[in-house]
Design a protein that fits this description.
By secondary structure, this protein is mainly alpha-helical. It has helices at 4-7, 27-55, 67-75, 93-106, 108-136, 143-169, 175-206, 211-234, 236-250, 317-343, and strands spanning 15-17, 64-66, 84-86, 274-276. The strands form 2 sheets. The protein has a two-stranded parallel sheet with strand order 1-4. Strands 2-3 form a two-stranded antiparallel sheet. Helix 5 (108-136) packs antiparallel against helix 6. Residues 1-6 and 255-285 have low confidence and may be disordered.
Length: 344
């Protein structure tokens, strides 16, 4: 079973990717960068989640935006379905962006821990709101807050599961596709949970759910899910740019194929200096000058480009060697003949 030091890609600050024209950071400085960035992302995630629950705790009509009337006033066209967007949902899609960034830069374990902690905090927040209403003597219903909490928990668990699965299948590439598809799937489960909890809570109090409440829930589910998907589509380009900027700032890898670089690490938490995908430095290689191409022979009587008759071409080194060897053979033959004549 892998330990946390080997299952998470960039848990230890001693692991950092080297980028061209970027200095290699010390482990202490890199640890501060990564943890500080994680706190900013996690804090933004928790703030937008708490805002949705707190703003819609009472479920008043004043906390709704009538999308149908607004579009009809701007364009003069009526929508086929009524759409009511809760004010608390305006910043809610930003939480999906934060989870995608954390999962892509820090790994699925940290993202899952953040989502689970946000779920516990949301239920605790609902309890505090209910206690505050009881102390103040208010008869506000905790049903809307519970419904939005269920939407948050189911939606983010589905989003994280599909996003992590797509990251493994696509080796960490195509962030825009992973983020949009997983967000769209999360809306189906999240707002279905919202509708079920709202329906169950309303029927448990009134016994029979009026048609007006059903129409109200349908309008909220359609508007909120459509708005969240549209928000993610618009935020795709900033998400990709931010992810690449964080990769350089945090010295992390861009894809899951760098997991293979961690396969030979030991199973303990001792710091290991690891170089991932380091580019080879530029080297100056001295090479011998290539010999000039041989001159194209020309006939002795052929005129040159300027119209003059060129001088006879000199003998080549091979031809001179041939003549020299021939003379040496002739001299040795003559010496042998003289030696035989003298001995006779």
């Amino acid at each position: 079973m892998p330990t946390p030091s080997t299952s998470d890609r960039w848990l230890l600050p001693s692991r950092q990717r080297e980028f061209p024209l970027r200095e290699v950071l010390s482990p202490a400085r890199l640890h501060g960068r990564r943890e500080g960035t994680f706190l900013v992302l996690a804090g933004t995630f928790l703030i937008v989640t708490a805002a949705m629950i707190v703003l819609q705790a009472g479920g008043q009509a004043a906390g709704m935006i009538d999308v149908t009337s607004s579009i009809a006033a701007w364009t003069g066209q009526e929508l086929p379905e009524a759409m009511l967007l809760p004010i608390g949902v305006l910043a809610f899609p930003l939480s999906f962006v934060m989870v995608a960034l954390i999962c892509d830069r820090y790994g699925v374990r940290r993202a899952r821990a953040l989502v689970m902690f946000g779920g516990f905090a949301s239920f605790g927040l609902v309890g505090l709101l209910r206690l505050s209403d009881a102390v103040a003597g208010s008869d506000a219903s905790p049903g809307p807050a519970l419904a939005f909490t269920a939407c948050y928990l189911v939606g983010h668990l589905l989003h994280l599961a599909f996003f992590a699965s797509a990251s493994r299948k696509l080796r960490g590439r195509h962030l825009w596709l992973r983020a949009n598809v997983s967000t769209a799937i999360a809306q189906i489960g999240g707002w279905a949970a919202f509708g079920l909890v709202s329906y169950y809570y309303a029927t448990s109090i009134d016994g029979e759910l009026p048609v007006a409440i059903m129409d109200h829930l349908t309008a909220v589910v359609i508007a909120a899910s459509a708005y969240t998907v549209l928000f993610m589509v618009v935020a795709t380009v900033p998400l990709v740019i931010t992810t690449r900027a964080l990769a350089i700032y945090l010295r992390t890898g861009n894809s899951l194929d760098e997991l293979d670089d961690f396969s030979d690490l030991p199973d303990h938490d001792e710091p290991v200096l690891l170089e991932t995908r380091r580019r080879r430095p530029a080297m100056i290689v001295e090479q011998a000058a290539a010999p000039p191409p041989p001159a194209r022979p020309r006939a002795a009587n052929a005129p040159s480009a300027r119209g003059t008759i060129p001088a006879p071409l000199p003998y080549s080194s091979a031809e001179l060697r041939f003549f020299t060897e021939g003379e040496a053979l002739a001299e040795s033959a003559a010496d042998s003949a003289n030696a035989l004549a003298a001995s006779a």
